[in-house]
Specification:
- The chain is of the alpha/beta class and 382 residues long.
- It is built from nine helices and 14 strands.
- The protein has an eight-stranded mixed β-sheet, with helices on both faces. Strands 2-3 form a two-stranded antiparallel ribbon.
Length: 382
């Protein structure tokens, strides 16, 4: 029996939207074509008659379409359940919230683990390279399917924040507001380096088999290691010290290589859990898409073009994966181009994971911002 939280949306259902059927395949940023494409998505709340209350919530690297509520066969709610629901930051009594699994994903959307209609086998590495722009373009088809001309807001953290920025870059006339959290306009060399180490961990696993492992089983050791490496970057030094310090599982050293520090066991547990729900090739493709992402400067807002999209940019002081400085550089650029932008830097010890944990402060900021944007939309303002 599922025990639900207060103000929960209750049971929700994942739905599927298919488009780009041949010969109308979607052209990717690489120039390759892909189709048919299926996106898994969930919706919460009710779309009003004017279709002016729609918010697109965008997930991070390991997320999916299940942002809130409960599935009948799962004990845990969606990944942003504390933010999406009645009376919450993304208030489903006021707004119609959409969340889709990204193109290239492995949680219901078309990706490398999907069946290639041309061969009847998983795409594997025959799946074309994708970018954040391609993810947004696929989402645009879904939004068109709902008949929504202009989104009230696009919002997300980490890779979700990249998508929020890409929406503003690709379709500024279709986005009233954008809330990028704990993100950057482009990856630094250090951020690319962490992604590459994770990819190499997967590809070095003999079970990867050049990507053609679907008949044999996942490269579990490589994917778990990639997740362990990534998870270290999601936490701060202070949060790790507070959570684990140098505590041992047992009272004394074992003088072996078995995991004996609590932090070792935690990371191994995170890695082992991850391989049960995520596809190794998807990890390769999505991290590469993040490395390709770049909407710095005029790529976000070309010289001579105005942007009416309003921004709420949120960063976290202890985030050393996506530094607050990267968010401040975005804010400085937008202000220099006279864009309506609010910047908030939240004091948190959680590191990059803070956007999934600092719900009280995020709720206060997001609620106020959305109320202002929605009020302007209702009054016919920009």
């Amino acid at each position: 029996m599922v025990v639900q939280r207060m103000n929960s949306l209750g049971l929700v259902e994942t739905k599927f939207f298919t488009f780009a059927e041949p010969p109308n395949e979607m052209t990717l940023e690489s120039g390759q074509k892909l189709g048919p494409i299926t996106l898994a998505y969930e919706t919460y709340g009710v779309l009003n008659e004017e279709k002016t209350n729609a918010i697109l919530v965008l997930h991070a690297l390991s997320g999916d379409a299940h942002a809130a509520g409960y599935h009948p066969d799962e004990k845990k709610p969606g990944w942003w359940d504390d933010m999406v629901g009645p009376g919450k930051a993304f208030d489903t009594e006021k707004y119609f919230v959409i969340c889709s699994n990204v193109l290239g994903g492995c949680r219901g959307s078309t990706g490398p683990s999907s069946i290639n209609p041309g061969t009847g086998k998983p795409y594997a590495l025959h799946f074309p390279m994708i970018t954040i722009r391609d993810m947004v373009e696929a989402q645009r088809h879904l939004i068109d399917h709902f008949g929504i001309g202009k989104l009230l807001c696009v919002a997300g953290g980490s890779m979700g924040g990249m998508q929020a920025l890409q929406w503003a870059a690709s379709y500024p006339d279709r986005v009233r507001s954008s809330i990028p959290m704990a993100t950057a306009v482009k990856h630094s060399s250090q951020q690319i380096a962490f992604d590459e180490v994770g990819r190499q961990a997967i590809m070095a696993d003999p079970a990867w088999r050049g990507g053609d492992y679907y008949e044999h089983g996942q490269p579990e050791r490589g994917l778990a290691l990639a997740r362990m490496i990534g998870h270290i970057t999601y936490m701060s030094e202070q949060s790790m010290e507070e959570k684990f310090s140098r505590r041992l599982k047992n009272d004394n050293y074992s003088f072996t290589f078995v995991p004996e520090f609590e932090v070792e066991g935690y990371l191994r547990n995170r890695g082992d859990h991850f391989v049960r729900r995520f596809d190794a090739n998807t990890y390769l493709y999505i991290t590469k898409a993040m490395d390709y992402f770049d909407v710095a400067g005029e790529k976000l807002l070309p010289d001579g073009r105005q942007m009416d999209t309003r921004f709420l940019v949120i960063a976290f002081k202890s985030d050393w994966l996506y530094l607050p400085q990267q968010s401040r550089e975005l804010v400085d650029f937008l202000r220099g181009r006279f864009v309506d932008v609010t910047y908030c830097e939240i004091k948190s010890t959680y590191g990059h994971d803070a956007f999934l944990l600092e719900f009280d402060e995020e709720t206060r900021l997001v609620k106020h911002f959305l109320s202002r944007v929605y009020g302007s939309a209702a009054n016919g303002q920009r």
